[in-house]
Hints:
By secondary structure, the protein is an alpha/beta fold.
Amino acid sequence: xxxxxxQTLRPFLWRAANLYPDTEIVSRTHEGVERYTYxxxxxxxxxxxxxxxxxxxxxxxxxxxxxWNHHRHFETYFAVPTIGxxxxxxxxxxxxxxxxxxxxxxxxxxxxxDESLAPKLASAAADASEFEGVDFVVMSSxxxxxxxxxxxxxxxxxxxTAYDWPVLDEERPAGMCYTSGTTGNPKxxxxxxxxxxxxxxxxxxxxxxxxxxxxxxxxxxxxxHVNAWGMPFTATAGGAKHVYPGPSPDPAxxxxxxxxxxxxxxxxxxxxxxxxxxxxxxxxxxxSALDTVVVGGSAAxxxxxxxxxxxxxxxxxxxxxxxxxxxxxxxxxxxSLQDADYDTQLEHRAxxxxxxxxxxxxxxxxxxxxxxxxxxxxxxxxxxxxxxTTEYFKRPEANEEDFEVPASGASGESEDGTxxxxxxxxxxxxxxxxxxxxxxxxxxxxxxKSGGEWISSVELENAVMAHDDVAEAAVVGVPHERxxxxxxxxxxxxxxxxxxxxxxxxxxxxxxxxxxxWLPDNVEFxxxxxxxxxxxxxxxxxxxxxxxxxxxxxRVPEEAAPNDD
Length: 565
Ligand code: AMP
């Protein structure tokens, strides 16, 4: 028997507004720190729903946002999907041509834009046919010079604080986000209500990132990318207090909000926490309220886990993808490891973790064979489940590459004619240990192939970054006549590091743990590692800017062959 309604987002807010009307939503904006309650949030969400309708937005229309993390952006998170329209969060850090492509591809009707990001949007929209017919609302109470836009507060003004929310079909698209596209155009991923609902419910479990009514949740991870890892929805479902850090928060802003608002759970990419750790060197930092820091998007170094452990804060390492709404695994400590020594525990916690309940996975090697869970053999990670997409938006050629149909569904469709059962080929190369912990060895396209064997660029860069005088490091394969590719490390020295001795020290340190043929042929010092629009190392840019064969020519020792030690 089906339930009376489908799995949709509206009940999460209904419950929070009715059970926790006085719980706060706090937001750092251009105007300072603003706060209100779920009760007011619910009213303003209804006003926004009415305003959208009055503007002509209908079920099925796409509404874009071009915003940092704040309460107004959060209002669009519930208002847009729960009237039956689709929320398309646009990453403002993308290049203009990608922004034009995705606004056109998604066919956005209306875009909410932050005042500080309006010049960037104006530059992408200037004389662009892709933006024809797109209206703008600026997220403030006054107009902006950059684009012709209605101020948000005027957009809402006069609209009713009640709205007759429709009962929606769970298959209806609720959200949308584009992958940041390391090659070619970004690919759109649609999130149905069911995907976001099931992602929220799985995140609430003890094996996810549970949030409850005594939590204070601050997503530092941007709301413009994969719904800030779903945290605004999960925090609402759990009845938690929300804290939004606003436009380009720096470590001092993050620290102040943690202290002043009593944040218990926060999340972000490693760079955010490296910044906070550096800030703590010169400033007193009170982390007594903080229970959990979730780190993902790139690998969390072991030293970071230790740093937070020393301050009584649990670092949860999580892995995921835009295609997975995005949480796929979290590195909780299994009960069987509770009595293990600290180093063994740390070794497991530093891995990408155990698959989230509700998902399935397998690891496939180059010959299409499933690899054993022995922590050694690696292959590409394939996943499927309720919150994993089964296709890209209007990109059939990418679908063929990135999705695999199960053998039983030869046509690519299951018995009921849907695409369920399809595996997503993640492009991440992993090992899985006997306990079931996933370790991300590399992105498939970044693995270094030397003399027919694979070298993990991720493992090498983490090892280089363990040196105290290294701020950041990226390792990429450089073409080589004899060995196909050889690793070169690009290193940003920490402030005050002595570059004349650093290369030798790094090489000596690596030599203690890795075979000779793994060791980088060269260490190049650079000022900054180029990053993608989602804060990951952009190896494509490093390759384009820095790598040519001269970096390794004549420097590879004869013994740099696999199997020689
Ligand atoms: P995105 O779709 O932009 O969220 O990027 C997803 C990709 O980020 C994954 O396929 C991984 O390659 C990488 N990634 C995400 N989380 C982690 C993590 N904890 N450690 C290493 N890489 C990660």
